[in-house]
Design a protein that fits this description.
With 223 residues, the protein is mainly alpha-helical. The protein is built from eight helices and four strands; from the N terminus they run ααββαααββααα. About 8% of the residues have low confidence.
Length: 223
């Protein structure tokens, strides 16, 4: 209940404070890309139930004969690149938080197509509301391998506290300013999840896993 009240209050406060910026971004998108201004897509939320995520549009519309996935680079406009680099395209998700389909902090909501591809442990990321930001977002974001993202998601679910949420929110500001992990190699965002490339999450290479665990534990302990 405390987390939900915090989500509503925090999201509404920032919607009011950022209203002039939101309107300005909407006008720029309308003038440079036309309508619609807001991009809507079905994502998997708590319990795996689908909801419509809201983002500012960053790509021009598909032309005849173009494949949606193959032309991401070509369709991403200069305005869109700026919005993604600064994460301003994510701001409409504050409305998702107020509506209750998302939280300020939690595992990022992913495509509904991925639901059958998770193993039992990975599927636990849907035990809570998805977040506008999360532990994976402040530890590498799209530059992380899918298995590592899911490992961080489950760790967050098992250790979540109000204070951990506040630390993640604070670190999100630094990650956005630095532009850390905006995209995976060869794509404007992240590669599609095709299922685990290894047998289990525990098969992640020990060196990378230990380094990641130290970072996560230091965040949780407040070091």
């Amino acid at each position: 209940m405390i987390k939900r009240l915090f989500d509503i209050g925090f999201a509404m406060l920032w919607l009011l404070l950022l209203l002039p910026l939101l309107l300005m971004i909407a006008v720029v998108i309308r003038l440079t890309m036309g309508g619609p201004v807001v991009f809507r897509q079905e994502r998997a939320g708590r319990g795996g139930e689908s909801f419509e995520i809201l983002k500012f549009r960053t790509m021009r519309t598909l032309r005849a004969g173009e494949d949606e996935l193959a032309t991401d680079h070509a369709r991403l406009t200069s305005v869109g690149r700026f919005l993604r680099r600064t994460s301003l395209d994510e701001l409409p998700e504050l409305l998702n938080v107020v509506a209750g389909s998302m939280s300020m902090v939690g595992p990022r909501p992913l495509l509904c197509d991925y639901l059958p591809l998770y193993d039992e442990r990975q599927a636990r990321r849907h035990d809570v509301r998805p977040g506008l930001t999360g532990l994976a977002q402040v530890n590498g974001r799209n530059a992380l391998a899918w298995e590592k993202k899911f490992e961080l998601d489950v760790w967050y679910i098992d250790h979540r506290t109000f204070w951990l949420d506040l630390r993640i929110l604070a670190r999100t500001v630094g990650s956005v300013v630095k532009g850390v992990g905006l995209s995976a190699a060869g794509t404007p965002t992240a590669h599609r999840f095709l299922g685990s490339t290894t047998a289990t999450v525990s098969d992640v290479s020990s060196g990378g896993r230990v380094e990641g665990e130290r970072e996560v534990l230091s965040l949780h302990r407040g070091r």
